[in-house]
Write a structure and sequence with these properties.
alpha+beta; 4-stranded mixed sheet; elongated
């Protein structure tokens, strides 16, 4: 179970400001959160685990009467279903304004399905299904320190529009080879190196100027603030 009150996650990008009403796509916030959770649990501090079933279900539901009122996600051992609080996350596309929080919640709740009941009993006898380490995703609340890196690797895909791949940002996902990019006036773009291979973006400016911010070790955000197009060339290099 993960709760609302401790999700003090600083926003990495501009607050999402529009509502996505298009038909469902093959890639969704839920599918990416499940993929991120799978990547996390394959190499977690507790060991290597597969998800409890090929595609766990994520169900939006009201909080049961026997649970604390600040719960935003829950799951039961021996099932393949993660429940998320409907009046907090609202619907699949409306209200998941913090993908990092949503992704961390899904990863945490799947941990309850993966780890045996009472897994943390030795170190946390008063709350045996949760870690006492604030850096562990199984800590009872979300913090700035227990967001899985695999969630960061996917979060930027959902930036700048409300939970749909951004036509404004023109996202590049998993950049691994040389690539030359033209950025229109007043546009955003992200250069994302493949997660898990210790790669970082390297950028060359061929014309104009851009603002560059490193969001994560493998992700650069670019902003063209001018009224003219600029041309940049990007690649990935090893992190030494």
């Amino acid at each position: 179970m993960i709760r609302y009150r401790a999700f003090l996650i600083a926003a990495l990008v501009t607050t999402l400001c529009s509502i996505y009403t298009h038909t469902a796509q093959a890639r969704t916030p839920i599918s990416d959160a499940l993929a991120a959770a799978s990547a996390y649990w394959a190499h977690s501090p507790e060991g290597s685990f597969a998800l409890p079933c090929a595609v766990p279900s994520v169900v939006f539901a009201p909080v049961p009467a026997d649970m604390p009122g600040d719960v935003i996600g829950w799951a039961s051992h021996g099932t393949c279903v993660v429940y998320v609080r409907a009046d907090y996350w609202k619907t699949l596309y409306d209200g998941i304004s913090n993908y990092l929080a949503f992704c961390t919640t899904i990863t945490h709740e799947l941990g309850h399905l993966i780890l045996r009941p009472g897994y943390f009993a030795a170190s946390n006898p008063s709350n045996p299904d949760h870690s006492t380490d604030e850096h562990n995703v199984m800590y009872p609340s979300g913090t700035e320190d227990n967001i899985p890196q695999s969630c960061y690797a996917r979060e930027l895909y959902w930036a700048y529009t409300s939970l749909t791949p951004s036509r404004v940002a023109n996202v590049v996902d998993e950049l691994v080879t040389w690539r030359t990019v033209t950025m229109p006036a007043h546009s955003h773009r992200f250069l994302v190196c493949k997660y898990g291979e210790r790669l970082q973006p390297k950028l060359w400016l061929l014309s104009g100027s851009v603002h560059v911010k490193r969001f994560t070790p493998n992700t650069d955000g670019l902003l063209n603030p001018s009224s003219r197009s600029v041309i940049v060339r990007g690649a990935c290099e090893p992190i030494y």
